[in-house]
Amino acid sequence: MTTMTVDEAIALVDQVLQNKSMTDIQEQVFRQSWHGKTYVEIANSCGYDSSYIRDVGYRLWQTLSTKFEAIGLLNIRVQKNNLQVTMRTYADLLKSQEPRFKGVHNPQPETVLGKRHDWGNAIDTSIFYGRKEELASSADWIITDRCRLLGIFGMGGIGKTAFVTKLAEQVQGEFELIIWRSLRHSPTPEATLLDLASFLTNQDISSLPQDLHGLLVTIMAVLKKSRCLLVLDNVESILRSGDSTGRYREGYEGYGELFRQVSEVPHNSCLLLTSREKPHNVMDSDGSDRPVRSLQLNGLGESARQMFQPDQAIAPETGKLIELYRGNPLALTVVSRSIKSMFNGDIQEFLNQEVNVLGGIRDLLDEQYSRLSSFEQQVMYWLAIERESTTTDSLRQNIVPMVSRLQILETVTGLSWRSLIEKNHNSFTQQPVVMEYITERLIDGAYKAAIERNPEFLMSYALVQPRAEDYIREAQIRHILQPLTQRLLAYYGSADTMQRELHSLIESLRDRQTAIGYAQGNIMNLLRSSQSDLTKQFCRFPEQVTEYSDLLLLERLLESDRAGGLATWDHRIPWANNPLAQQTSETKTQLRSKNLYYQWPEGTLEQLKEELQQQPKLRKKYQAWLNETQFAEIDADFEAVQITDTFNKPVDARLVFINEVKIVEPPADLPTPSDRRHAKKRRQGIATSSSEKLG
Question: Do 94 and 153 lie in a common domain?
Fold first, then answer.
């Protein structure tokens, strides 16, 4: 019997499959099965669940058995335990009947009724979920509208390759020539065009033009003469990293010329391409008559439930999981394996961990993050800090030094096409998993800046925004400031050492001749966060309190039996004691941790400020929202005080001591706090829209 290496066996399998090579995971299963590895061992080496690997193997052996039977040379059921014997037997039979099966042993592109198809390394789509509407629309663009170039875009793992494979399979009857190629390993334009031209003309490479211009002329001539379908996968590999405009890598501009000619020159063929980023000259569709179309591929939505076992598919927790990962097929595949292996299939238990960026998902996001420009990364950091949808105008105000509106708009557009951010009317935010990932990177950057005493990173970002809504500040403290504080405490070993180092870092900032941005405010927040004893009692300090003399004001609040707070005139009050403690089932400690503050109706706070200018101490009754649903009449003592800001300048503030809180019905038509927030966002959106039109 013929001796055979595993590489020779894989080459033989590729010949048997003819129009499709094995996928990477199939090849791993084949290769390791050849060497006698068990499915469990293969799974451990590849990082997959063993049941998934077993399923891949079963389907592969079934496919090979079917192919052998169709050829009519070998009628043996391929199995893992007879793999070597089967492949050697097949090789011997091929040799004995070489003239008859010469086409199998040395296959050419598949020829059916005069048509030629070369599917290259297109993936198996026998398992495919959802996308019916997108497939129908795309097929209609290709068949009915005669679209010349169709770009399929989306973030990594969203299923672009599977979608385009399925689409090509559905429309293949419309085309005489079909060729599929991946650009994952960044082949030069000349190499790819030679490959395309050789297939389209059915000529040997040596007989074709070797220059870019000659190859383009040859390819375009065939596209005009015959109805051809060209598929180029992973186009982002030929684009520049860190370029938000989709420019080509140096030496790869020839691809841009191919795309331009396919788009502009009249013909009846179609070029399909997939990419995480939009190439420079692949534009949005301006109407149904355009020959160039773009499709943004989003998550699977409810159809992602089909990926789970029947009992899990209907569970409400599965819906939460799908929403968390925005229906990203690869992310859901990775996380479902972890849930099965680590949590015995309990989805809710996994969700309770609040750790969503697992290894495979992190690798995926690392790839996309590494391709962002420094400014795109900066915008991503600010969106993670904001924690909710924000306008481009707000982003522009946050970023130091200030940038142009055009630069912001171009950047968020590019990030949107990568599916790294989501658009909500006139504002933008991140998917939950993307936000968690970027937040981790933000904390890493701030941690490194602190321990290396290089404050550049801390200058660029406000880890806790002093003028954000209260619930946003709480989220920033919980998700950014506190984790960073814990890491620094672990590094320095004690709060005293950490505080000494941070004070030293502040002193070094005073010697700098350049602007220090957000650095001093960030360091002061870290100092406050490290004061564990005081933090437990009074977990949120006003942003402006920086000097120890100011803490005497806080001690008055902490020592008082009455509810109270210290507030600057942006009306945020951190409460020492909460007046609702006797009116709810929650303990006083739980209420303190909420940092509840009072939302004053418009105009009343300004009136109080004027009164305190005339009379530094006064008692006053006023009405305010306690939260989103409760409205109260409040009797309080006020005292005008001054505290110092981060530049040691005096800032007007007020001490508040609550005498009585009475829950009452709010006046008719009085906006709630959320109503006011929404109205503010609408005004910002209108202002941004007006600015863009004027600009």
Answer: no
DSSP-derived pairing of the beta strands 228-233 and 177-182: parallel
Q: Which among 532, 543, 538 has a CA at the least distance from the CA of 563?
A: 538
Nearest partner of 379 among 297, 324, 435, 446, judged by Cα: 435
Q: Same domain for 190 and 68?
A: no
Reduced to 3 states (helix: H, G, I; strand: E, B; else coil), residue 167 is helix
SS3 at position 498: helix
Q: Are 166 and 131 in contact (CB under 8 A)?
A: yes
pLDDT (tens digit, 9 = 90+) per residue, 585-633? 334 343 333 333 456 777 777 888 888 888 888 888 888 777 777 788 8
82: tokens are 């007879």
pLDDT digits (tens, 9 = 90+) for 317-356: 888 888 888 888 888 888 888 787 788 888 888 888 777 7
Both tokens of 187, joined, read 């082949």
Residue 285 binned pLDDT confidence (cut-offs 50, 70, 90): very low
**CATH number, domain at 650?**
3.30.450
Half-sphere exposure of 546 (CA within 13 A, CB side): 17
Query: What's the gap between Cα 439 and its chain centre?
Result: 12
Same structural domain, 222 and 277: yes
Torsion, Cα of 473, 479, 485, 487 (10° steps): -170
Helix (H) and strand (E) counts in the chain = 30, 14
**673 belongs to a structural domain:** no
Domain boundary (364, 388, 411) is at 364
Start-to-end CA distance of the chain, whole Å, equals 78
What radius of gyration, in Å, describes the C-alpha atoms of the chain? Answer: 32
**What residue type is assigned to position 300 of the chain?**
L
Strand 427-430's sheet: what is its strand order? 390-391, 427-430, 421-424
Q: State phi, psi for 42 to the nearest 5 degrees.
A: -65, -45
Predicted TM-score (pTM) of this structure: 0.58
The count of domains in the chain is 5
With respect to residue 168, please indicate whether it lies within any of the assigned structural domains.
Answer: yes
One-letter amino acid of 468: A
Q: Which residue(s) pair with 623 in the sheet?
A: 633
Q: Which residues pair with 274 in a beta bridge?
A: 152
User: Is 676 part of any domain?
Assistant: no
Q: Establish if 693 belongs to a structural domain.
A: no
